[in-house]
Amino acid sequence: MAKTTIITCTQLPTYRLGYIEEAWRSLQQQTQQDFRWIVALDAPQNPVPDSFNDPRVTVLSSMEHIGQAAARNRALEQITTPYVCTLDDDDVLTASSLETRERALDEDRRLGWVGGHMADMAPNGNVAGRWEQPARAGAYPPGRLLDEWGAPERYFVALTHTFTMRTLLVRDIGGWQPDGSIEDIGLVARMSERHRGMIVDDVLYQWRKHPRQATNSLDAEVERVAMSRHVWQKARAFGQRQAA
Predict the structure, then answer these.
(1) Domain boundaries, position 152
(2) Which of 35, 45, 186, 200 could pair with 179 in a Cys bridge, judged by C-beta atoms 3.0 to 4.6 Å apart?
(3) DSSP character for 66?
(4) How far is Cα 163 from Cα 114, in angstroms, rounded to an integer?
């Protein structure tokens, strides 16, 4: 029985078709092959690749542009597995990524989330180096992750892409919110404020660098810093409401 559903939100632009095919191959190469993959189309520019014709794959299509948060939440409504994670359409998972995260959640039912490390990947697919992050491997009670991270300006995305979370808890905290380009950071921050989790000392995710990357501009960095402060404050208030 499948335990994890992976959500990928995409508009299928022509220049990313090869990338999303690689993302799919990385799923086909997982050591844990019993998974579900939801491809959430947000006003797609191209047809879905034929290779996605697999019983593990579900395609959800919106012909109108609704945004990544809304597309992910539509996918969240369809999930029947106990765990959920995301995969961007231009990135890949390492071979034991799903199995490592599932094992941690299976072994400790108190955990609401599991994360790990991420590595850069050059446009040609070569791994370019592991990201170093302030949050060390180990257990995290509610609220500690943001303490460990230290400040919203630090590049929190190095961790957010690696999170697998319990589906019921993601629904309970409201799923993804429309926080600009960093709704994944907002979700992870809120999840870590409410629920205990764990960071494993393994590379789980490979983040592709390429010239047309959405984050590859000064304007995107300015927005990221401003929105990070905003979602950080929201997450802290979210955690405080539960503690009160």
Answers:
(1) 4-243
(2) 186
(3) -
(4) 6
pTM here? 0.92
Q: In angstroms, rounded to a whole number, what is the distance separating the alpha carbons of residues 179 and 185?
A: 9
Are 180 and 227 a contacting pair, CB within 8 Å? yes
The answer to whether 228 and 185 have CB atoms below 8 angstroms apart is: yes
**Looking at residue 188, which CATH number applies to its domain?**
3.90.550.10
- Split the chain (244 residues) into runs of 10 and give each run's mean pLDDT: 96 94 98 98 94 97 90 97 96 97 98 94 78 86 90 70 96 90 86 96 89 59 71 83 64
Task: Assess contact for 129 and 213: CB atoms under 8 A.
Answer: no
Residue of 53, 55, 105 lying closest to 84 (CA atoms): 105
Asked if residues 36 and 75 have their Cβ atoms less than 8 Å apart, the reply is no
Identify the CA nearest to 63 among candidates 51, 74, 79.
Answer: 74
pLDDT value for 212: 63
**Angle subtended by helix axes 68-78 and 183-194, to nearest 10:** 50
Provide the 10 A C-beta neighbour count for residue 30.
18
Please give the structure tokens belonging to residue 48.
């879905």
CB atoms within 10 A of CB 223: 15
Phi, psi of 128 (to 5 degrees): -105, -5
Provide the domain count of the chain.
1
